[in-house]
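SECTION: protein entry
WANTED: fold as C-alpha cells:
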Amino acid sequence: MHLIQPFTGLRPVPERAADVAAPPYDVLSSAEARARAAGKPWSFLHVSKPEIDLADGVDVYSASVYAKAADNLKNMLDKGVLRRDPEPCYYAYRLVMSGHVQTGLVAAASVAAYDANRIRKHELTRPDKEDDRVRQIDATNAQTGPVLLAYPTAPHVDEILAQAASGAPDADVTAEGGVRHTIWVIRDRERVQMITGAFDAMPALYIADGHHRSAAASRVAAARRKANATGSQSHDYFLTVAFPHHQMRILDYNRVVTDLNGLANIAFLEKVRGNYTVAESATPVRPSRHGEVGLYLGKQWYRLQIKPQLAAVNDPVARLDVSLLSEHLLGPVLGIHDLRRDKRIDFVGGIRGLPELEKRVDSGEMVAAFALYPTTLQDLMAVADAGQIMPPKSTWFEPKLADGLVSHVLD
C-alpha cells in the first residue's frame, strides 16, 4: 500500500472557487460562521458548519446537523457548483500570506500508515471531537477538511511541485485576510507516478494540524472494513495537504492568566526571579530566541530569560518553550498544572499579535500575559519521532488551509 495516492477530487468549478472556499471548520464559532456565510449560498461553511442553516442554539452534535451537511453538499453537486474529477489526480496547493509562500501537495494518505505511526502525531485527541468528525464523514460520505502534514527534506519533490505550480491555475482565490489559495491539478501520469514513488521513499510524514480528522478517518476505515465493505476501498485513505517542513511557519502560541495565585505584582516578580532573569522593557517583547519570554503585567513589559541550567535538557518535550514556562513558572509560581482544564489560563494565537495580549490584560479580563518563542518544525518532528505528546496549544500554523477547494469522496 502506497504512503499516498492520487484521487478523484471533488472541486468547485473554476468560476465558483471564490464562492466556495471557506476557513477551516474549527477556527470559527457557529455565530462567526453564520455571519461569514450570510448572503453566500455556496460557501463551504454550509457543509463544514451546517448548523448555520438551522435554528439558533441547535445542538451542533445533533443528527439534524449532520443530515444538513449531507443535504447541502448534495445540493452543491446537483447545482453544478462542485464537480468531481474523472480520473485520480494530485493537486499542487500554494499558500501566500504577507510575502510568505509555501507550495504543497493535496493527496490521499494511507490510513494504514497512520495506524502504523508512519504518519506521526504529536497531540492527544478528545473523544467528542473525534466522534464529531466520524459522524460528519459518515453523513457526507466524504472527507471535506484536509489534514495538514509536513514532509521531511525532499528537494526532488519540492522541484516537482514547483514545476506543477508554474502554469495557469485551476483555482485562484484570495480569501478574507488576504491569504491567497491557488490550486493546480496534476494529471500527467508520469509526474503522478514520480510523486507517489518519492513519498513512498520517505521515512515518515508528520501531522501538523488535523489530529481529530486523521483519527476519525482511521475509525471510519476500521468500521467500514469490519462491515465487509466491497468495491472501492477509498476509505483506507484520507484527505491531506503535505508541505515541505522548511516552508511551513509556526507562530507563537501565547498564554494569559486571570490571577497571580494570590501574589502582588512585586512578590510575583520576585518568585519569577528564582528561575528567570527579569528586565523591564520600554517596548513590547517578542521573544527572539529559545528560553526567552515576554511578560506583560501592570501596563509594563518585561523580558524574561530562563536560567541556562534549567533550559539544558535533551528531552524533546521538556525542552520546548511552552514546557519550560509550565515547569518553571506557571506550575511552581501560579499553581497552574493542568493546561487542559484549568480555567485560570487561556491561549492566544500569535496571528493576533502582541497588542491582543495587552488588550486582554488592560481590559481587566486577565492580569498577566506571556509571549513565547515559537515551537519549530524540527521540535515538532522530534517529539513525533520519539512517540511523545506536546503540551496543549504548542503550535499555531499560519497560513491556514481552506475548506472546499478539494474534497475526498468515499465511494
